Backbone:
């Protein structure tokens, strides 16, 4: 991850509130499952580590969680950890949306193109009317 990407994620994380807390029990399987679900849903999350009760320091917690969940540690400040993991669900949804938008694409013609198409239509109609034969050899008028 580049520095610019990391800075952009830090800026996005500024307005987020911590949604998960790590306390005296430390990092458990249930906690990892909750964090994984949150990363799938949001991609970018904040975690609070209670400094007084947690058996691990915040940087150690961040390293263990990132390694276990294949996530990126964006920053660790005090007792706050910011993690990022690209969500496969969101990526699939974005691809499907782009495909749908591409299928709906409407061709917009300019004035010259519309006039040319109208002239072609008119010429085809007059050609059809000239070659059309009516029963009894009379004209239809």
Residues:
């Amino acid at each position: 991850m580049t520095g610019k990407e990391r800075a952009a994620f830090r800026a996005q994380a500024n307005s987020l509130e911590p949604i998960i807390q790590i306390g005296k029990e430390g990092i458990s399987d249930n906690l990892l499952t909750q964090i994984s679900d949150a990363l799938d849903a949001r991609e970018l999350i904040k975690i609070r580590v209670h400094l007084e009760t947690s058996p691990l320091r915040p940087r150690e917690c961040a390293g263990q969680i990132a390694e276990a969940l294949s996530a990126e540690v964006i920053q660790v400040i005090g007792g706050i950890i910011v993690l990022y993991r690209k969500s496969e669900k969101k990526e699939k949804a974005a691809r499907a949306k782009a495909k749908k938008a591409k299928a709906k694409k409407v061709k917009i013609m300019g004035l010259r193109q519309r006039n040319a198409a109208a002239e072609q239509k008119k010429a085809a109609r007059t050609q059809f009317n000239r070659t059309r034969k009516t029963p009894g050899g009379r004209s239809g008028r």
Q: What stands out?
A: The CA atoms of residues 2 and 60 lie 22 Å apart. The two ends are 78 Å apart (CA to CA). Residues 3-88 form a domain with the Translation Initiation Factor IF3 fold (CATH 3.30.110.60). Strands lie at 20-22, 44-49, 72-77, 80-84.
